[in-house]
Amino acid sequence: MPSTPTRRSAAERVAQIADAARAIAIESGLSAVTLRAVASEVGVAPALVAHYAPSMDDLVADTFAAVVGDELAEVIALAADRGSAADALSGVLASLLDDGRAEVTLIWVQSWSLGRRNDALAARVREQMDAWRVFLGGILERGRAAGEFRCADPDAIAAQTLGMVDGLNAHSLVAWQDASERVRLLLRSIEALLDLPPGALAATGGDTSRSHAPGGGT
């Protein structure tokens, strides 16, 4: 039975529910964020969660945005630490295919399926995908301006890159090919799109050694 809830302010209770939903998503995926699961995580009755989070669709959407938004912020910081656009690009791509991102990969994959019946989630997914395209397009534009890359349409290549990353990460959920092979395939494809010689991006190094704690480093 749920324990008697501690009296908290509305803001504290909303934050507690959001934290619980996030923990559940990271542990078990976005589809596990249900009213009963959140109530159990918080240790209160489902009715209390429903009072402070009347729309589970919105809670799921907000949870998705929080987790993947933190991932993007972390990767932006990773790119900022790299000297050249090529180094930033190879580091980011290797990081995104790292096995340590399995929890966030599952959240992304489930978001596309769940978003078919959750309009709030679908809107958040589109927002995040647009943000990722802007981020990658910025790296590509920086490389083009510096003469590192040759590409007529950085935004289009950014969109293609995201499609490949998403597909390869989905493959990782069933352990199809190891991370190093997925990285090799992706970098080789991007080299071709940017008119780079084979191995050019891999040669810049893709060290992604860092923590992989979702939501502060996924």
- Return the CATH architecture of the largest domain: Orthogonal Bundle
Strand composition percent:
under 5%
Q: Assign a percent range to the helix content.
A: 55-70%
Count every helix, treating DSSP H or I runs of 4 or more residues as helices: 10
Order of helices and strands: HHHHHHHHHH
Domains, number:
2
> Mean pLDDT, as a whole number?
89
What does this structure look like?
This protein is mainly alpha-helical. The chain has two domains: 10-52, Arc Repressor Mutant, subunit A; 57-203, Tetracycline Repressor, domain 2 (Orthogonal Bundle), CATH 1.10.357. Helix content is 68%, strand content 0%. It has ten helices and no strands. The protein has helices spanning 10-28, 35-42, 46-52, 56-80, 85-96, 102-114, 119-145, 154-172, 179-193, 200-203. Helix 1 (10-28) packs across helix 2 (35-42), helix 4 (56-80) runs parallel beside helix 7 (119-145) and helix 5 (85-96) packs antiparallel against helix 7.
Topology:
Elements: H1 10-28, H2 35-42, H3 46-52, H4 56-80, H5 85-96, H6 102-114, H7 119-145, H8 154-172, H9 179-193, H10 200-203
Helix pairs in contact: 1-2, 1-4, 2-3, 4-5, 4-6, 4-7, 5-7, 6-8, 7-8, 8-9
